């Protein structure tokens, strides 16, 4: 029996990339997954696939910039499956460009999705975790917050803001109720950089992903590893990068 057999896990950003791979991996290991994102056609297809393979899954139209949507996601887990064991706050956007380009709208979007979106998830899940007497928060931060490089300043800043919040939350939660895990992926082959606005930056990033990027399945396995530990074991930080990444 897997450590995930009875777990109820909500995942944001589950419509593609790391979130979708994590949904499949966790459902495959026996967890019930509640999946949030804006592209519901993708979520519906993923849920159909999980159910066809004998798993348990529910989709929900979620925009993480809207606090009420995270409340709805957590409520769906509790209503449908009786509780929420883990929130994987994974939704994120990367708008890569030098600071001097002053892409202020992109900065706002990264702050709204990558920082506010995770805080909304924490606000929705924490009261449920406290009431249950246990819970686990997992976030996908990034190696870009560990090794600072040009053109990723605001993106890396958002990821390090989340890392900081999770570490503080960990220190505030030594009563054993809450586990926190920050997952730091390196280059992972997903749609993330397809949304970079500047064509030159986008093409460069896509090339790096194609040459170096690892499968999102690798990150999904790391998340599963953290989640399936016994309640008294907290995997605080995990870095998963391509072996050839500098
Ligand atoms: P994808 O672009 O494939 O996935 C991003 C996910 O976030 C999508 O499911 C998207 O769903 C969702 N999302 C974006 N905006 C919102 C929103 N406002 N509300 C709800 N969901 C939203 O990229 P990845 O899988 O790579 O990204 C997943 C996470 O991993 C991100 O936080 C990213 O920063 C992080 N990461 C990725 C790395 C990589 O190399 N790929 C490296 C390090 C970290 P939809 O558009 O349907 O709403």
UniProtKB/TrEMBL annotation:
Listed PROSITE patterns: ADH_SHORT
All copies of the Ketoreductase domain together span 7-190
Molecular function GO labels = oxidoreductase activity, acting on the CH-OH group of donors, NAD or NADP as acceptor
Keywords noted in UniProt = Oxidoreductase
Is Membrane there in the keyword field? no
- Do you know which Pfam families this protein is assigned to? adh_short
Entry similarity comment: Belongs to the short-chain dehydrogenases/reductases (SDR) family.
Q: What is this protein called?
A: NADP-dependent 3-hydroxy acid dehydrogenase YdfG
Q: Which organism is it from?
A: Saccharopolyspora gloriosae
């Amino acid at each position: 029996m897997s450590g995930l057999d009875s777990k109820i896990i909500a995942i944001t950003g589950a419509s593609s990339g790391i979130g979708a791979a994590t949904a499949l991996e966790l459902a495959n290991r026996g967890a019930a997954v509640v999946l949030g994102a804006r592209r519901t056609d993708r979520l519906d297809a993923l849920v159909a696939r999980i159910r066809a393979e004998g798993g348990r899954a529910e989709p929900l139209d979620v925009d993480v910039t809207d606090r009420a949507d995270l409340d709805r996601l957590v409520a769906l887990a509790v209503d449908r499956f009786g509780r929420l064991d883990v929130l994987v706050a994974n939704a994120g956007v990367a708008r890569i460009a030098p600071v001097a380009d002053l892409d202020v709208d992109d900065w706002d979007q990264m702050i709204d999705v990558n920082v506010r979106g995770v805080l909304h998830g924490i606000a929705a899940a924490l009261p449920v975790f406290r009431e249950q007497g246990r819970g686990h928060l997992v976030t996908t931060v990034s190696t870009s917050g560990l090794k600072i490089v040009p053109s990723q300043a605001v993106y890396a800043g958002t990821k390090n803001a989340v890392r900081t919040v999770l570490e503080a939350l960990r220190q505030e939660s030594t009563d054993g109720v809450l586990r926190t895990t920050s997952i730091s992926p390196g280059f992972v082959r997903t749609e993330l950089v397809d949304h970079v606005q500047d064509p030159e930056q986008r093409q460069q990033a896509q090339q790096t992903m194609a040459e170096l990027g690892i499968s999102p399945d690798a990150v999904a396995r790391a998340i599963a590893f953290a989640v399936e530990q016994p309640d008294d074991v907290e995997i605080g930080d995990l870095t998963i990068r391509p072996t050839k990444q500098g």
